[in-house]
């Protein structure tokens, strides 16, 4: 009888171990499938918004990035177009997208320069955009009836931004006003001694400033429109 009980408990123990091993393997595979990949100062989920096979190991050219973004935007109608591309040193490309009919900024994107994967820029683009919500991660949601009256006009926003960079970065920095008005905020170019070096955003309701500190060193600004 004792041996029989030992056999039963042995079978139960082996079964429990098998279940535990199986669960551990499933948990590991699940974690891998939802893994967040960190790329320099940006981030994206694996497989987000397309991408391409790039066996060369070299960065994609701005023309290739432009083609990938334009192809992505085609999935959201025919009223969006690329406005600017910021090329950073070994960091994600920044792409501003505007509406064709109004010329107003719509969304801001980051693009992995090696894979072409596209994802929403963090910060104002995700938190302040009153018309194109990108909080869902892999796509944006258009809010057709979004209406509001800005409390801060463009001239006031430029003054706020210029005061901010001079106080925080130094007197050699300035915000002359180049950039785009999005729905809910402005994004302006920051210059140092007359050369564009980065960007910041100003909330058009509160005047709050959000400095884009996740980019690398700026190499080139390409204006498409």
TrEMBL record:
Keywords: Membrane, Transmembrane, Transmembrane helix. The chain crosses the membrane at residues 7-31. It comes from the Bacteria. This is PepSY domain-containing protein.
């Amino acid at each position: 009888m004792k041996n029989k009980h030992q056999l039963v408990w042995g079978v139960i123990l082996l079964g429990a171990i098998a279940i535990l091993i199986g669960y551990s393997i499933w948990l590991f595979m699940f974690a891998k499938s939802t893994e967040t990949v960190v790329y320099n100062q940006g981030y994206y989920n694996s497989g987000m918004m397309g991408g391409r096979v790039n066996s060369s190991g070299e960065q994609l050219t701005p023309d290739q990035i432009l083609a990938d973004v334009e192809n992505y935007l085609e999935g959201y109608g025919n009223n969006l177009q690329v406005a600017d591309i910021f090329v950073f040193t070994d960091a994600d490309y920044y792409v501003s997208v505007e509406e064709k009919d109004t010329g107003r900024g719509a969304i801001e994107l980051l693009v992995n320069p090696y894979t072409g994967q596209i994802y929403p820029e963090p910060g104002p683009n995700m938190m302040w955009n009153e018309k194109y919500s990108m909080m869902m991660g892999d796509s944006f949601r258009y809010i057709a009836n979004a209406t509001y009256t800005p409390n801060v006009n463009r001239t006031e926003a430029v003054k706020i931004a210029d005061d901010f960079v001079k106080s925080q970065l130094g007197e050699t920095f300035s915000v002359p006003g180049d950039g785009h008005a999005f729905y809910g905020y402005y994004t302006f170019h920051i210059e140092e001694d007359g050369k564009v070096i980065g960007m910041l955003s100003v909330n058009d309701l509160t005047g709050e400033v959000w400095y884009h500190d996740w980019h690398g060193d700026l190499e080139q600004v390409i204006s498409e429109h």
